[in-house]
């Protein structure tokens, strides 16, 4: 089974402390984070003495049954997760939040990101006798926490976090506390909010909008926040602070209404489109954005160039969840099912098509062919991100080198391959410039530049880790 998206999302996490409707709110919040992961979902709740959980495969609405939800009701503390697998196969045992039991107490764990030394740690622990229940990278944190000899819960959490390398936004639940931590590069987003006096955290602010919570602020790289019935405690687990927020969150992953430091992704994408115009000197009659994620960039390009934006491509909204068999031919068929041109809009026109990214080139190749068939006179592709050349080790399935078209081909060769009249990518420098305008302190750009900000200790692509974990 293979999903038709060119880029696959990561996970979404949520947590809330001390609200009478905690589990209902968690369910609604997870629903709004569904775009971040569709392979499985779950929830862990606390009654102050014990933790209880439920999880299942698929979309949230399929993963949790009405009976399960009813059994989680009335608990005032809850965490939740929607999963897209990075390390560890798509199977129930890997679906989060994890729930661990020990005579020291219960532990609930939800993770967004990908650890780049999990395999190393896991092998060392296995050699010492540890037995893992999952093939997920996230489980190593629970082992490190349980084995820590530091005095006090917070000190144990800190010492476990310090041993991890990679990307993480963790939501950690004990019976009497909710702790959240973001890695010192802040690769994955985590936001702090408040509703009816109760604090909550979410991967994206769209979750706060869905439950009517107030968005307080973005959680900083290296921060450690603990919520208990006595209030909230702001701390850090490390003094290092090397901000490297994932560029693809801004470009493609986050929902357009989600905010970073108070600015919507829509606005940031529009600015990326505007910036692209500065580098794309092409005359045309209309600008078309590839729906849905590139409409904002197309608007920015249209505003800056004065060329009118038209809805020249339509997206069939029911194919987002279509699964098809792997293979290029099947992938092409899927794009045909998904996008179709509006003939009388493009017929006889010189068209600029704006997309947010090119991975394999399947989408752009299809679009160019379809627009030509619909009568477009010229087709110029503008991409509101730099060429993706490298895979991601920090929690996004950008695919392997072999499949990424720009890893071996120059923009000219790609232009030729997709059959466009011209192809322009946004430069890395201008992309960073846009992020700086909106208050970002630094971004990861490794899939464009190959400069990985966090050393890849395991030296294995997340997609290949499952086999390695199984000892193959
Ligand atoms: O070069 P490719 O391998 O075809 O991948 C690139 C495409 O993938 C993404 O869209 P996607 O179709 O995943 O989803 P969207 O509808 O959310 O834009 C991205 O926005 C590009 O359009
Ligand atoms: N995409 C994610 O953030 C997934 C979290 C974790 N690495 C897993 O594979 O389950
Ligand atoms: S490599 Fe690319 S997708 Fe991965 S974290 Fe960095 S910017 Fe994001
Ligand atoms: Mg797209």
From TrEMBL:
Pathway: Purine metabolism; IMP biosynthesis via de novo pathway; N(1)-(5-phospho-D-ribosyl)glycinamide from 5-phospho-alpha-D-ribose 1-diphosphate: step 1/2. The keyword DNA-binding does not apply. The active site is at 11 (nucleophile). [4Fe-4S] cluster binds at residues 246, 392, 444, 447. It comes from the Bacteria. Keywords: 4Fe-4S, Glutamine amidotransferase, Glycosyltransferase, Iron, Iron-sulfur, Magnesium, Metal-binding, Purine biosynthesis, Transferase. Mg(2+) binds at residues 293, 355-356. Residues 11-230 form the Glutamine amidotransferase type-2 domain. This is Amidophosphoribosyltransferase. It comes from Corticicoccus populi. The lineage of its organism: Bacteria, Bacillati, Bacillota, Bacilli, Bacillales.
């Amino acid at each position: 089974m293979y999903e038709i998206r060119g880029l696959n999302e990561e996970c979404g996490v949520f947590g809330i402390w001390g609200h009478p409707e905690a589990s209902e709110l968690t369910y609604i919040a997870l629903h709004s984070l569904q775009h971040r992961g569709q392979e499985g979902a779950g929830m862990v709740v606390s009654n102050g003495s014990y933790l209880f959980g439920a999880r299942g495969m698929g979309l949230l609405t399929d993963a949790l049954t009405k009976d399960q939800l009813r059994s989680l009701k009335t608990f005032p503390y809850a965490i939740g997760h929607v999963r897209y697998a990075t390390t560890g196969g798509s199977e129930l045992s890997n679906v989060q939040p994890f729930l661990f039991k020990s005579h020291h107490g219960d532990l609930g764990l939800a993770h967004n990101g990908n650890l780049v030394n999990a395999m190393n740690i896991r092998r060392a622990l296995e050699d010492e006798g540890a037995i893992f229940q999952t093939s997920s990278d996230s489980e190593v944190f629970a082992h490190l926490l349980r084995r820590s000899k530091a005095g006090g819960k917070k000190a144990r959490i800190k010492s476990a976090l310090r041993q991890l390398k990679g990307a993480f936004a963790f939501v950690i639940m004990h019976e009497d506390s909710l702790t959240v931590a973001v890695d010192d590069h802040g690769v994955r987003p985590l936001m702090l909010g408040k509703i009816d006096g109760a604090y909550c955290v979410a991967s994206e602010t769209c979750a706060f909008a869905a439950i009517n919570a107030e968005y307080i602020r973005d959680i900083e790289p290296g921060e450690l926040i603990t919520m208990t019935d006595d209030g909230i405690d702001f701390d850090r687990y490390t003094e290092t602070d090397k901000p490297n927020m994932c560029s693809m969150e801004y470009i493609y992953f986050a929902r357009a209404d989600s905010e970073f430091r108070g600015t919507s992704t829509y606005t940031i994408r529009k600015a990326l489109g505007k910036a692209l115009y500065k580098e794309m000197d092409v005359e045309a009659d209309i600008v078309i954005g590839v729906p849905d994620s590139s409409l904002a960039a197309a608007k920015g390009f249209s505003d800056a160039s004065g060329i009118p934006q038209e809805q020249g491509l339509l997206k069939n909204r029911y194919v987002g969840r279509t699964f098809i068999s792997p293979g290029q031919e099947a992938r092409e068929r899927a794009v045909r099912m998904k996008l179709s041109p509006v003939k009388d809009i493009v017929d006889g026109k010189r068209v600029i098509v704006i997309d947010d990214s090119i991975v394999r080139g399947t989408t752009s190749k299809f679009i160019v062919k379809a627009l030509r068939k619909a009568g477009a006179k010229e087709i110029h592709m503008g991409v509101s991100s730099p060429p993706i050349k490298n895979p991601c080790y920090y929690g996004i399935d950008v695919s392997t080198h072999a499949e990424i078209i720009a890893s071996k081909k120059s923009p000219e060769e790609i232009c030729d391959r997709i059959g466009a009249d011209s192809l322009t990518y946004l430069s890395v420098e201008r992309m960073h410039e846009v992020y700086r305008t909106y208050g970002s302190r630094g971004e990861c750009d490794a899939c464009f530049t190959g400069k990985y900000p966090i050393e890849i200790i395991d030296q294995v692509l997340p997609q290949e880790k499952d086999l390695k974990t199984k000892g193959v």
